Description:
Helix content is 21%, strand content 27%. It has 205 residues and is of the alpha+beta class. It has two domains: 124 residues, Jelly Rolls; 38 residues, no CATH class. It has a five-stranded antiparallel beta sheet, with no helix packed on it. Strands 6-5-8-3-10 form a five-stranded antiparallel beta sheet. Helix 3 packs across helix 4. It is globular and about 60 Å long. Bound molecules: 2-acetamido-2-deoxy-beta-D-glucopyranose (NAG) (3 copies). The site of one 2-acetamido-2-deoxy-beta-D-glucopyranose (NAG) has 4 residues, from loops. GO terms for molecular function: manganese ion binding. Keywords: Apoplast, Glycoprotein, Manganese, Metal-binding, Secreted, Signal. InterPro entries: Cupin_1, Germin, RmlC-like_jellyroll, RmlC_Cupin_sf. May play a role in plant defense. Probably has no oxalate oxidase activity even if the active site is conserved.
Amino acid sequence: MASKRHFFVLLSVLYASIQVSMAGDPDILTDFVPPPILFGPLGGNYFTFNGFRALVGAPFPTTFKVLKASMIEFPALEGQSVSYAVLQFPNGTVNPPHTHPRASELLFVLMGSLQVGFVDTTNKLFTQTLQQGDIFVFPKGLVHFQFNCNTTNSALALSAFGSANPGTVKVPSAVFNSTIDDQVLALSFKTDVATIQKIKSGLSV
Length: 205
Ligand SMILES: *[C@@H]1O[C@H](CO)[C@@H](O)[C@H](O)[C@H]1NC(C)=O
Ligand SMILES: *[C@@H]1O[C@H](CO)[C@@H](O)[C@H](O)[C@H]1NC(C)=O
Ligand SMILES: *[C@@H]1O[C@H](CO)[C@@H](O)[C@H](O)[C@H]1NC(C)=O
């Protein structure tokens, strides 16, 4: 009986560890991934990202803006399964529906408030109005958005991702600003080509 219980404990630990190892980017076989070409000894600088200093004392943007610290901007993140993005929402702006194919997202509202939501695979919408100090999780791969509906105040949020390269698929541009044939879109949206072209012309400017 005891050995049977042990077996189940072992099995569930094994299962949990598989889940953990599958939760992030592929594991690397070294402590970190150094730059491909080294000009001198590797130091703390390589593990430091200064890109967000641009935010300090800078005027708030007039349109929605994302500042990323992913593997592309910060190569030391390769293999570490983490990254950041700072999201700046002037009053009344939206981060349109999009997905991150490789990561879940943990959004922390630093300033202002945000209306957020995601849609699961059954098309159920989960939405919330977040206040300064709140944290919301967007499950990996699901379509989601953030909206600062406040007409006078801007909002600022910090998003953490469970991948060094979460990727972003913007729904409007993936569907209407790629080169998918108009006929395919017209049939898919049960409309005519002229309507599709009208939507497309709005996105391409
Ligand atoms: C906008 O934000 C300010 C400051 O938090 C708040 O006092 C005001 O009620 C908000 N307005 C709306 C329309 O939500
Ligand atoms: C809110 O946004 C509008 C532009 O949509 C801008 O003209 C206005 O100055 C903003 N209000 C504040 C208080 O920032
Ligand atoms: C649509 O595509 C064009 C050409 O690739 C690009 O310049 C433009 O920024 C895109 N617009 C949007 C809204 O993604």
